[in-house]
Specification:
Blueprint: H1 16-24, E1 28-29, E2 33-35, E3 42-44, E4 49-54, E5 64-70, E6 85-91, E7 94-99, E8 105-110, E9 115-117, E10 123-128, E11 135-141, H2 143-150, H3 153-157, E12 178-180, E13 188-191, E14 193-194, E15 203-204, E16 213-219, E17 224-231, E18 239-240, E19 247-252, E20 254-260, E21 268-273, E22 276-278, E23 285-290, E24 296-303, H4 312-319, E25 332-333, H5 340-352, H6 366-372
Helix pairs in contact: 1-2
Length: about 375
């Protein structure tokens, strides 16, 4: 048998994005879930700030996270790039200046739990507004697919093409927006900036369970998707599944999520509070539980928006699969079909926090009461 050919000098099974990350020289974290407030950052010359890369195990092929720290009184290097990003502020206060195609500059101030997106390939720069506190934010972006498509850094970071149609109305940079009613679970808010996601008004989406509410965001007319959902006190959502790349950030309250495949005997668990992010792997069921004495809210960011689904899987999901029962060909596990262990685990967790269940309005809790009596 002939010896296997030496492929070390051949272009074979390349990943231009991963090669780029290794050259950037900052920490790279790979986990199922990460507390971004605890991530170690190091100097990142590209941004003239400290940073790290977070590659969640369920990130898929399209999306990853940059964590950026801006020192007190500091600023990032000016940026322009041909990839989309959605930014969620983890801590600190600051401002961002965006220059649109007509040369006008638009500035807005942000703080913890602000959400915004930069128009594609617009010039922008971030500033820390505090002289004493570091500002930290997470950029969820699609650089990985762009570098893997074009494998040319100059094309991504030095491209002069402008996209005025992606910049939005001037008021979108100050938090103004337009509500676009579709139907529960598909209603959209179009803007570039949400000053405080924890305080943003959501719309009821009963089909996802237990008095939940939701809003989809169209940010800078982007292909990047973002939505926020909230669980009332004493409740939890219905289990569901979808493709990879939904990055789930805890915004307010606290709780946990269980993840499993059909064949699994046990659940994987992520406990969360503000700062924690996780991404369920492809077609892995997951379910979110509020254990807090206040409503719990989260943010999910992915590639493929309500306006531009990008792939057929997202189109089917947003069209109806996300709140249609698995029994009917969808992706949702109805309460009556969920693993009987799930409710018992949750009852034990809320008891630790002195929270009373409201799930009796949605499921029969009698068997669980008898077991714990």
């Amino acid at each position: 048998m002939a010896d296997a050919p030496d492929t070390k000098d051949l272009k074979f099974l390349l990943d231009p994005y991963i090669e780029w990350t290794e050259r950037e020289g900052v920490p790279i974290i790979e986990e199922l879930g990460v507390d971004l407030l605890k991530v170690e950052t190091k100097p990142w010359p590209r941004f003239d700030a400290d940073g790290a890369l977070v590659h969640l195990k369920g990130r898929g092929d399209f999306v990853s996270i940059f964590v950026i720290d801006i020192a007190p009184g500091g600023k990032t290097a000016p940026q322009r790039h041909l990839f989309e990003e959605v930014i969620y502020v983890l801590s600190g206060h600051g401002s961002t200046t965006v220059e649109t195609h007509d040369g006008k500059k638009h500035s807005f101030e942000w703080g913890p739990k602000s959400l915004f997106a930069l128009p594609l390939n617009a010039h922008y720069q971030h500033f820390n507004g505090s002289g004493a506190e570091t500002a930290r934010f997470a950029s969820v972006n699609n650089l990985c697919i762009m570098l893997n498509l074009f494998h040319n850094e100059g094309f991504i970071f030095e491209n002069p093409l402008r996209f005025p149609e992606r910049e939005g109305a001037a008021g979108h940079f100050s938090g103004e927006g337009e509500f676009i009613p579709i139907r529960p679970g598909r209603n959209m808010w179009e803007t570039n900036f949400v000053p405080d996601l924890a305080d943003f008004g959501l719309k009821a989406w009963e089909a996802r369970g237990a008095g939940s509410s939701n809003m989809k965001f169209i940010l800078a007319d982007g292909t990047m998707h973002a939505h926020s959902s909230e669980m009332p006190v004493g409740t939890y959502k219905k289990g569901h599944r979808h493709g990879a790349d939904f990055h789930v950030f805890a915004v307010s309250g606290h709780g946990y999520s269980l993840l499993w495949y059909d064949e699994d005997e046990d659940f994987q668990r992520i406990d969360w509070t503000h700062g924690v992010v996780f991404a369920p792997p492809d077609q892995m069921f997951h379910q979110h539980y509020n254990t807090s004495a206040t409503p719990s809210r989260y943010l999910a960011v992915a590639l493929g928006s309500m306006r531009y689904p990008f792939v057929e899987d997202k189109r089917r999901l947003f069209a109806g699969g996300v709140d249609t029962s698995v029994a009917d060909g969808g992706n949702q596990v109805e309460y009556e079909d969920q693993d009987p262990r799930i409710h018992g685990i949750w009852l034990q967790e809320i008891e630790k926090n002195g929270v009373e269940s409201r799930m009796g309005e949605y499921i029969d809790e009698t068997p669980y009461v008898k077991k714990t009596a």
